């Protein structure tokens, strides 16, 4: 049986905008709609630094929505960007335990957005400003451009099921890999056995042909479970999404998947 190392669950966390936060205007050339669908990563912080070093990552997945993390838990919910300020309230947060050096990162993020920061956008640079903190963030596509699906060696960092996103010490130690060459050749490792085959890469879809694999017995039952999950995702058609150096694969059942990072 595979043991869960950490599981992400959502609970409401109130981040109430201070009524006395200073107002401000976005630049004349920027409007809230200019942020839609973009992700920004902090490159400089003036004032209280982010515990653990961050970075602060702020996403605007659609109009009126925001998501952010400062290196530990992810906050998400509604946001009002009118009048040049970011107004948020009752954001939800994952409840993952932070490493000791990042224990204060969630409180730092809550303080920043609780102050109703002023925002401005200059090309690919977003600036968030409160009375005592200024954060400069760069568009993620500039900081971390999307890696190509083919020709990149990917390392599995977590397993996704219908119920959880699972990572573990066993998965980190096994470090399963996947590589798809431009000619469609597939190679990789489950962390226990090597596999190979071929695949057809389309727009947002990969069709894996049946894989061949070595047959060594895995010494750790947890690694056996990891191997089974990987092979189930790489069986047949899978959808994919690349975000910078991250790749997500989702099996044809629409729930099981893999999260991978470019090596």
Please give the structural blueprint.
Blueprint: E1 10-13, E2 38-46, E3 57-60, E4 65-69, E5 74-80, E6 87-88, E7 91-94, H1 105-114, E8 118-122, E9 125-129, E10 134-139, H2 140-143, E11 153-160, E12 165-166, H3 169-174, E13 177-180, E14 185-189, E15 194-201, E16 205-208, E17 212-213, H4 221-233, E18 236-243, E19 246-250, E20 257-262
Antiparallel strand pairs: 1-7, 2-3, 2-10, 3-4, 4-5, 5-6, 5-7, 8-9, 9-10, 11-12, 11-13, 11-20, 13-14, 14-15, 15-16, 15-17, 16-18, 18-19, 19-20
What does this entry look like structurally?
- The chain is mostly beta strands and 263 residues long.
- The chain has helices spanning 105-114, 140-143, 169-174, 221-233; strands spanning 10-13, 38-46, 57-60, 65-69, 74-80, 87-88, 91-94, 118-122, 125-129, 134-139, 153-160, 165-166, 177-180, 185-189, 194-201, 205-208, 212-213, 236-243, 246-250, 257-262.
- The chain folds into 2 domains: 10-142, Lipocalin; 153-262, Beta Barrel (Lipocalin).
- It contains 4 helices and 20 strands.
- A hairpin with a 6-residue loop joins strand 5 and strand 6 (87-88).
- It is elongated, with a radius of gyration of 21 Å.
- Residues 1-28 have low confidence and may be disordered.
